[in-house]
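Throughout our pipeline, every protein is held as a single compact record rather than as scattered files. This encoding replaces a full spatial description with a residue-level series of whole-number codes. The remainder of this section carries one protein's record, kept here as part of the documentation.
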Amino acid sequence: MLGSYLFAKQQGFKFNLAYIPNNLNFKTHELIDPKYMLSIFELGRSRVGGDWEHSPPHLYR
């Protein structure tokens, strides 16, 4: 991810990142879990409208 960020900056491109936060309170032990998939879909849906990060998370923490 850092390489993509640095490439975008070097080329003058915007860098937009969406990711699943570490504090998502849902644990699963299945490889494919429809309930987990639905929970992350709903999380993304609730963040629609500009919650892009413009740098990798470890660069601003």
The chain has a mean pLDDT of 83. The chain is about 40% helix and 0% strand.
